[in-house]
Amino acid sequence: MPDMLVHLLKLPEQKPALQGITIRRAQPFELTPVRQFIEQHFSIGWADEATVGFSNKPVSVFLATQEGKILGFAAYETTRRGFFGPTGVAESQRGKGLGAALLIASLQGLRDMGYAYAIIGGAGPTDFYTKAVGAIPIENSTPGIYTDMLKPD
Questions:
Q1: What pLDDT does residue 10 have?
Q2: Could you tell me if residue 64 is inside a domain?
Q3: By residue range, what is the domain housing residue 68?
Q4: What is the three-state SS of 83-103?
Q5: Would residue 117 count as lying in a domain?
Q6: Which of 23, 49, 64, 67 yields a CA-CA distance of 20 to 30 A from 76?
Q7: What's the pLDDT band for 142 if we cut at 50, 70, 90?
Q8: Is 101 or 1 the better-scoring residue by pLDDT?
Q9: What is the pLDDT of residue 124?
Q10: Under a CB-based contact definition with an 8 Å cutoff, are residues 57 and 34 in contact?
Q11: Of 60, 110, 122, the residue nearest 82 (C-alpha)
Q12: CB neighbour list of residue 77: distance below 8 Å, 6 or more residues apart
């Protein structure tokens, strides 16, 4: 999976949230339920990466929530400076625009920090990122920062 480059000064407008769904920055006291959501729906590795975002000020993790339940998450400035990810939406909630909303909110967070460009590390759904924010693949970027990773016992 290649890394991708996003021009933060040309982000699309954030669309209004779906009825009853809120896109918001996570609060420090929500670390445990967010970790549990990520571990349950994705992986411990992604939970580890996102956990770093809770030590940033402001927290660099966004959530999609409805009635007190997490539907999806997106993190930035966690694994490396200027990087977006990890991100994920519960399988039952996909196709509703939550992924794009979380992506744009996070990229706006990077832009607010002063970045003009961001990197999406190890981008899985490259077509999604190209369509959502005009991201382009970075040539010769595979495997990028995810080399020589430790393997669980």
A1: 96
A2: yes
A3: 4-137
A4: EEEEEEECHHHCCCCHHHHHH
A5: yes
A6: 67
A7: confident
A8: 101
A9: 87
A10: no
A11: 110
A12: 53, 56, 60, 83, 109, 110, 113
**Model confidence band, residue 66 (pLDDT cutoffs 50, 70, 90):** very high
Question: How many whole angstroms from its chain centre is CA 9?
Answer: 18
Instruction: Please provide residue 134's backbone torsions phi and psi, each rounded to the nearest 5 degrees.
Output: 70, 25
Average pLDDT of the residues in 78-93: 96
pLDDT at 118 over 80: yes
Residue 98 near residue 129, CB atoms below 8 Å: no
Task: Answer whether 67's CB lies under 8 Å from 20's CB.
Answer: yes
The number of folded domains in the chain is: 1
Residue 47 neighbours by CB distance under 10 Å: 20
Tokens of 139: 């040539």
Query: H/E element holding 36?
Result: helix 31-41
Phi, psi of 91 (to 5 degrees): -55, -40
Report the CATH number that the domain containing residue 41 is assigned in CATH.
3.40.630.30
Reference 120, options 73, 72, 86; nearest CA is 86
The encoded tokens of residue 37 equal 């959501």
**What is the CB neighbour count within 10 angstroms for residue 127?**
9
Supply the pTM of this predicted model: 0.93
